[in-house]
Specification:
Layout (H helix, E strand, L loop, with lengths): L2 H11 L2 H4 L7 E3 L23 E8 L7 E12 L3 E8 L9 E5 L10 E12 L4 E6 L2 H15 L4
Antiparallel strand pairs: 1-6, 2-3, 2-7, 3-4, 4-6, 5-6
Length: 157
Amino acid sequence: MSSRLISALVRLLRPASRLTPTSSATERVMPGDVRGLRLTYRPEADGDPDAGEIVWTWVPYDEADGRGKDRPVLVIGQHGRDRLYALRLTSKPHDRDGEHLALGPGEWDTAGRPSWVDLGHLYSVPRAAMRREGAALDRPRFDRVAAALKARYGWSK
């Protein structure tokens, strides 16, 4: 059995209390302060979070008061050795507000609702805090997100 498969199985079998990160584990990052983020697309259906995948993790509320909720995020790139950059998703409609990009429905939402990615809410999330692999975003939709981020923040691709 491969080490990646074993790692994925161990992560799935951990008790739920160990899977729920504290507010200090997932950090909000101001996208405009990040320079030279290399947007990557490397999804692998192996149970580990990869750029281009929508996974679930605990995300703090905007009030930064220690509260938050489990929600889907789109992984967009590496942040150091053990962390990834991710953007939060929402199923609340945000047509033409300039902060969100419509993704449409996908396998990550079992109810089949359309989703929007929030271009203004970037998080640095420990790899170990991401779980419940939702789905790989298809390449054309990922490229649309990457193009929007590059135009908005000047990030490389």
